[in-house]
Amino acid sequence: MTRLLLPLSLGLALAPPAMGAEPLLSSRVARKPLLQQAQPLIPVRSGAGTSGASLFAGRAEGGLFSAVLEPTSLPHRIGGDSVNARIRDIIARAEAGPDGYDAVQHGARRRPPKRPTAMTLDEIFAWIAATPGQPHAIGRYQFIPDTLRMLVNRLGLDRRTRFTPGVQDRLADLLLLDAGLDDMRRGNITRRSFMHNLARIWAGLPTASGRSHYHGHAGNRATMTWARFESAMAPIFPH
Fold it and tell me: What is the reported pTM?
């Protein structure tokens, strides 16, 4: 789940967030990658253990690192293909554990009243509001509240929409775009850079050092090795 607000791997200075706060995620609407323009905050969860899904980091409005997409440009770019699905599978291995789309961050003392995939977005936000002071990362990609709200708004989803696997995948696909998936496909960035971008969103993914970009913040750690991450990504992007 990423509770650390991220800058990608572009060397933005990160100020350690206050412990115990729900992630404050912010962004700027811009036409250039936000990575190159803003210094993100990185709020982290408190009291998190070091096992299970990691922390998921995101931003409140607009894209995380790349140019914000106009709403009208989203439909034909979101929904995924085999490339998206394969990358999402790698992320899920690092983030969700065996519960997959019904995963809830292990530090949540008061869990949702039913399986996440059986809940509407409105029900999820109601659970978040009713259980302050605990982690709320939810689903296969461990969305934290501000990130979930931001993505739901970007897709224009009705709050009565159920948090199905398909909806979760669509939300994750927005983050793949923010991480530079289009640039990766066009050969404008290297696979290593793209992997670092992903690791700045999902704390369970490693950087080339072998550690999470957020290692040590509120119990965050990489849940796979860099070698395993690279071996999973190489067949998707051989060059």
Answer: 0.71
